[in-house]
Amino acid sequence: MRSRGKKPTNTLITWRFLLVCSVVFLVFMTLVARAAFLQVIEPDKARSESDKRTVRVEKQHVQRGMIFDRNGKELAVISKVLRQARKNGEDQQALAENTVELDKRIAAYYSNDIRWRELADVLRIEPSKINSRLRDNPKRRFVYLKRQVTPAVANYIGDLRLPGIHLLDESKRYYPAGEVTAHVIGFTNIDGHGIEGIEKLYEKSLTGVEGQRTIRKDAQGREVEVLDERERVEPENIHLSIDQRIQAIAYKAVKSAVLSYKATSGSAMVVDVKTGEVLAMVNSPSFNPNNLSDAAPHKRRNRAITDLFEPGSTVKPLAILAGLDYGTIQPDSIVDTSPGWMRVGGSLVQDTRNHGKMTLREILKYSSNMGVTKVSQELPKDYFVSLYEKVGFGSDSGTGMVGESSGLFYPNRRWSDHEIAALSFGYNLAVSTAQMARFYAMLGSGGVMRPLTVLKQESIPEGERVFQQKDVEAVVHMMESVFEKGGTAQKVHVDGYRAAAKTGTSKKAAVGGYGDEYVGYIAGLAPASNPRLAVVVMINEPGGDVYYGGATAGPAFAEIVSNALRILNVAPDKDAVAYVEGKDNDA
User: Fold this and answer.
1) Residue 90, Cα to own-chain centre: how many angstroms?
2) How far is CA 545 from the centre of its chain?
3) How high is the pLDDT of residue 426?
4) Which long-range contacts (CB under 8 A, 24 or more apart) does 185-189 make?
5) What residue ranges in 471-553 does DSSP mark as E strands?
6) What are the catalytic residues?
7) Which one of 133, 270, 315, 559 is least enclosed by Cβ atoms within 10 Å?
8) Where are the alpha helices (DSSP H) in 301-432?
9) Residue ranges of the chain with pLDDT lower than 50?
10) If we measure between CA atoms, which residue out of 64, 60, 306 comes closest to residue 189?
11) Neighbouring-strand partners of residue 343
12) Can you name the residues that pair with 523 across neighbouring β-strands?
């Protein structure tokens, strides 16, 4: 009887044991299967999860390179400011989906904590916009509320001690010279990437490469392993050919001319004729690169390299030089311009009056269209046109600046007799101020053509000789007459220095022909006895009755030349000031 009573107990124990073993076995197999799944089927996910907890990447930041002028003066520097971001907290899924309840809670939270309203006020952002930014994407780890706030604002926000609101350091570009160098230097965007000018042209050089150190840390945050390490590449500093002193003088002179003559715009360039270095490149109107709120597109355009105009009489020295180079005329030749007009190819070419027989010097002095037309008629068309291409018209000036135009000149077409005549006094082609500066730099260097450059040169670059030195020197000497009595720039002051220049006034092309607007030019060299600088000034669409190049651009030219040469310690080569009243002229 007793043995029969023990069997149910033993059976129950056996079943319990088997059940426990089965459960343990199933749990073990589940763990094995899970481990196999993670290790064999999806090993990358396991490693990824592990790396998220233990691997950290430390970046070695690099500051953007500096930009200096030729004398080491800073034109673009780095200043420390603060930017603001908020690290997103995790919301309950149900609350996140219940937008009505969530909005009530947020409104109550903002109402109860005045610090959020103070944050909105100091950032000048509506509280609703701050709320939308914080809730826009719950999966985002942080969101910018506002970037590049001032240190004072950042300190105030820090004192508020708002939960989840943090301040992060960043660099901001600062331009000490402001609007004076704005078109040359350009500016960067909020992320520090170059947008225009030198900032964009040398973006890679100025940026460098950040260093990176990938490490593994334990649970206590201690470094246990270095997985990867990359050295940072320091950015380069850019040394420009620009002389900030001359740049400021040129900008002041051009801005004054634009305001005085109620012109639409103006540009000027100063070039070292020995090296092709651009010492100044200015435009008016300009803009403040430190505050782009008023930087309209028309103000940001570097007109010295982008805007094109028919150069008018400023290219007349090339027609004289062509005749000397080809041998059809000599420096002492006489050209009969009577009766002051003629028809060429059915179209009229004329001067304002009959100058009769003229020397080459007088042709440039009085800016005679008849004189240069007569000279060009004696030359083969192909030869004459090729010279314009040879001196850089129709091609880039060499600066490499962003947005530079190569001009409008098409030498490989059929040219009529009248088109050749018009070409000799500056029509049927369009050039930039930079291209004109390159042409006059060639004259100043004695006939050697060099590309312009905005980078400081350690040595004199090689150039290409396009004209004989004696011919160029003869033409430069003739160009001094422009400042004499009766010349087209007779009222221009050039203190202490002999200057050789040519004024120009051209009508602006319009639909169906030419309109009523003018462009005034003056381009020249100084000192004439041994040229050092080529200076070009352009005044676009002067208002009123004064529009000739000698009147509108001449005073700015004189101011730039005399002051720039003194800054460069160039010895004066004349004692008196060339200033005489005289009669009207053609340019």
Assistant:
1) 45
2) 34
3) 93
4) 185/67, 185/75, 185/76, 185/289, 186/289, 186/402, 187/289, 187/292, 188/64
5) 500-510, 513-526, 533-540
6) 313
7) 133
8) 303-306, 316-326, 360-365, 369-377, 381-390, 417-424
9) 1-3, 80-93, 95-96, 576-584
10) 64
11) 348
12) 502, 536
